[in-house]
Amino acid sequence: MASKALEAVSSEGAVFPGLDGTPGLILPCPLASIDALLGPMIQFCRLNMDVALNSGQVWRRIGLMGGTFDPIHQGHLVVAEEARERFRLERVVFVPNRQPPHKADCRITSPEHRFIMCVLATADNPCFAVSREEIDREGPSYTIDTVRAFRAQLEPKTELYFITGADAVLEILTWRDPDALLEECHVVAAYRPGFDLGMLEQALGEEKARKVQSLPIPALDISSTDLRTRVRSGRSVRYLTSPAVESYIRKMGIYRD
Ligand code: DND
Asked: How far is residue 192's CA from residue 199's CA, in Å, rounded to a whole number?
């Protein structure tokens, strides 16, 4: 099972490989309800996180890809993959937030739907895992709390890279405890062609901007907002997100209203 490729979620179900030979996941079929999916997803995710973090192996570099992921799409996946390659990350852990601190007044899809979509989108990449660190933590999902929670589980030598978009990094001084965040992990700012890197220095000041690692990524003009709008108006999201996520959105009726 571990060697099988991901098959899209369909009426026949889907098989996901586990990381490094851990048992894979067979989705219950048919996809009747979120409850039927959540149990196996959480178990699969825990197993993979155990392999990713607690396998006794000393990791040198782990990436944390934070986001609201409402929904996750190819843009997010490309950023994670580019960061993995560029910084030679052994694992990239996707960390969907429960309560985005900067989107308090926005309507956000339930954390469990967003978590499941992250698992579906990442399950076929043996270097990707999904964490429930923020999903299971009450209150606003502050990144510094997450970085410290991961730090506590990892060897002191392991370097942590918090990966996010350059647009988000421009706002980092408004985040909780930005100085500590910049000290306790490498902050990676992924930028698309046309982004003026000088803006990072303008926004953060020279000293803090120097601590940020910039990462060029290919231009993919995809956004979660656009995906939600498309679903609401009955348009296709095919190829903008993974087939399993597309299928999940359709079957669960997410973003229809
Ligand atoms: P978003 O809501 O922007 O995530 O949140 C990004 C991260 O910042 C999350 O982990 C938040 O919890 C954290 N945050 C924000 C504010 C305050 C604090 C923490 C705090 O601690 O006080 P999205 O799901 O919208 O996107 C995830 C990332 O992917 C973003 O950085 C976004 O820029 C990037 N992205 C793309 N990059 C390349 N090409 C595309 C992209 N679409 C989104 N097409």
From this structure: 13
